[in-house]
Design brief:
InterPro entries: MULE_transposase_dom, Transposase_MuDR, Znf_PMZ, Znf_SWIM
Strand content: 15-25%
Organism: Pyrus ussuriensis x Pyrus communis
Number of helices: 21
Helix content: 40-55%
Shape: elongated
Number of strands: 16
Radius of gyration: 34 Å
Distance between the termini: 84 Å
GO molecular function, one term: zinc ion binding
Keywords: Metal-binding, Zinc, Zinc-finger
Pfam families: DBD_Tnp_Mut, MULE, SWIM
Strand order of the largest sheet: 6-7-10-9-8-11-12
């Protein structure tokens, strides 16, 4: 009924369809309804404006759910001026209006709902009503937050059943089993990390925006081509030192169960003290470094100087101590305050040249890239957030597995590109051989010593990146050695394929979980209740600071009784004043 007109004898499938049609017409044509009688067999209403003769009556046909219009009297004389709102524009009506839009766009904002309803119907609804409608619409599509927590144990069982060897555990607190923490790591991810990824783990968290909030903690790595490789993730009710200690304990157990010897790992994080302490205690043989993205953002916010950020990155990427010191001098010249601020972060935690381990050129983690996977799902119930990651993992593993089948080179595309560039530069170098393993390589502007036995070059690129530099390539070519054989194994196509060798399998829908649980009569699966803390309804309040108010001189109050400042007459506590006034 796009024209929203009615005629006598017009039929509707049932009473609900008729009510929706009359409500839609009232909103679209800008008149208010006064319902006189409405039940399962009849409906009688008139225009709410006094003096307007419009009336409608509809009844149910016998032996059928069909509703038909019996009479339609008068035409509207009310002017149809319901522009500022409409009684029929209830939350349920708004839900029906936005449901399809929400399915296509989880981030359909309340302000967009207001805009679309005003554009289509010409009415203005309150922001809070739009917000409530969105909450109810998401619950109708994806289930409620309470149901999601209740189904978590069953969901974890399904992960372990469909993906053997995977870890999925939910932890509760209190006698009423309130949600506390959740840890998930698929066996395919654990196997892929241990057998085909760089020994680097990025750590970070992102706030969830569902009814009960929480934080998603994650551990990611890099594959042989430098791509994002999610290893494990979890949800905690509160992000603090204790929750990071728990998360890294679970990660350590997951890796320990699947490897004979724990690899030497490098962790990248934002410098959160809780993360650093947890890494030191749970992975004592590993190294912890700052994520340069976080450090550069911090100095940028602190000093509002883009040149400082550029100089900091140059210092971090310096491959010699001389080069590093030169960049630090430039930082001090640009801002002595920034140089002093930077002293709180030891160079061994962020500068490539001073780092004790190997970062393979990765100064920043890829946590931000992983967080973008669930950016749109952050408002959904907890199971939907985890399922969003699961679906994306399935797709990425399958896509990358198929993509690598067409690769014919020994090294991954990014590593191969670096080697080709090195070969191009090496063609202009002169090589002097000292013995079986040591060479002096002369380039137009410098001289470098290469030792192919210890995999070292005086420029330090080979040691820092794990891929032969142009000087090394020149030395290897001069003695007819295979350049690819001197590249770290983690950059080979074989390692890339091994990272995605295991498949991540789909998980059945909620109905199948219940059927499985009933069939197997699992009685020991506990009911998980949501956390006690929940997000307050409505738009979060923002504390706005006015610069003028900060600069304005504060008003000093004055007491008219004792002639002192700091209080009023009504709050004056001076003795003897009252008796003097009476006198």
């Amino acid at each position: 009924m796009e024209d929203h007109t009615f005629v006598v004898g017009q039929e509707f499938p049932d009473v609900k369809a008729f009510r929706n049609a009359i409500k839609e017409a009232a909103i679209a044509q800008h008149f208010e309804l006064r319902i006189i009688k409405s039940d399962l067999i009849r409906y009688f209403a008139k225009c709410a404006t006094d003096g307007c003769p419009w009336r409608i009556r509809a009844v149910k046909l016998p032996n059928a759910p069909t509703f038909t219009i019996r009479s339609l009297e008068g035409t509207h004389t009310c002017g149809r001026n319901a522009h500022n709102g409409h009684h029929q524009a209830s939350v349920d009506w708004i839900v029906s209006f936005i449901e399809e839009r929400l399915r296509g766009n989880i981030n359909y904002k309340p302000k967009d709902i207001l805009h679309d309803i005003h554009k289509q119907y010409g009415i203005t609804i309150p922001y809070k009503q739009a917000w409530r409608a969105k909450e109810r619409g998401l619950a109708a599509i994806y289930g409620s937050s309470e149901e999601a927590y209740c189904l978590l144990p069953s969901y974890c069982e399904q992960i372990k059943k469909t993906n053997p060897g995977s870890i999925a555990e939910v932890f509760t607190t209190g006698i009423d089993h309130r949600f506390h923490r959740l840890f998930v790591s698929f066996h395919a991810s654990i196997y892929g990390f241990l057998n085909g990824c760089l020994p680097i783990i990025g750590l970070g968290g992102v706030q969830l925006k569902s009814k009960y909030l929480g934080t998603l903690l994650s551990a990611t790595s890099f594959d042989a081509d430098g791509g994002l490789f999610p290893l494990a993730y979890g949800v905690v009710d509160v992000e603090n030192d204790e929750s990071w200690m728990w998360f890294l304990s679970e990660l350590h157990k997951a890796l320990e169960m699947n490897s004979e010897n724990m690899p030497e790992l490098t962790f990248l994080s934002d410098g959160h003290k809780g993360i650093a302490d947890a890494v030191r205690r749970r992975f004592p043989n590993s190294l912890n470094a700052f994520c340069m993205r976080h450090l550069s953002e911090s100095i940028g916010k602190e000093f509002k100087n883009s040149r400082l950020v550029h100089l900091l990155w140059n210092a971090a990427y310096a491959t010699t101590t001389i080069g590093f010191k030169e960049k630090m001098v430039e930082i001090e010249e640009a801002s002595p305050e920034a140089a002093k601020w930077l002293q709180q972060f030891h160079p061994s935690r962020w500068a490539l040249v001073y780092f004790e381990g190997t970062r393979y050129g990765h100064l920043s983690s890829n946590i931000e890239e992983f967080n973008r996977w669930i950016l749109e799902a952050r408002e959904l119930p907890i199971i939907q957030v985890i399922e969003t990651i699961h679906i994306r993992l399935m797709a990425e593993f399958e896509e990358r597995r198929l993509k690598s089948n067409s690769w014919v080179s020994v090294l991954s595309p990014s590593a191969e590109k670096r080697i080709i560039e090195a070969i191009s530069h090496a063609s202009t170098y002169k090589v002097l051989r000292s013995d079986q393993v040591e060479f002096e390589v002369l380039s137009p502007d410098r001289s470098d010593i290469v030792n192919i036995g210890t995999h070292c070059c005086s420029c330090r690129d080979w040691q820092l990146y794990g891929i032969p530099c142009s000087h090394t390539v020149a030395a290897l070519i001069s003695c007819r050695k295979d350049v690819h054989a001197f590249t770290q194994k983690v950059f080979t196509v074989a390692s890339y394929r091994e990272a995605y060798a295991q498949e991540i399998y789909p998980i059945p829908g909620k109905i199948e979980w219940r059927k499985t649980d009933e069939a197997s009569m699992i009685d020991d699966i506990q009911v998980v209740r949501p956390p006690k803390f929940r997000r307050q309804p409505g738009r979060p309040e923002k504390k706005r600071i006015c610069v003028e108010d900060l600069n304005r001189e504060k008003h000093t109050v004055h007491c008219s009784r004792c002639n002192q400042t700091g209080h009023y007459k009504t709050t004056c506590k001076a003795e003897g004043i009252e008796s003097i006034e009476q006198f």
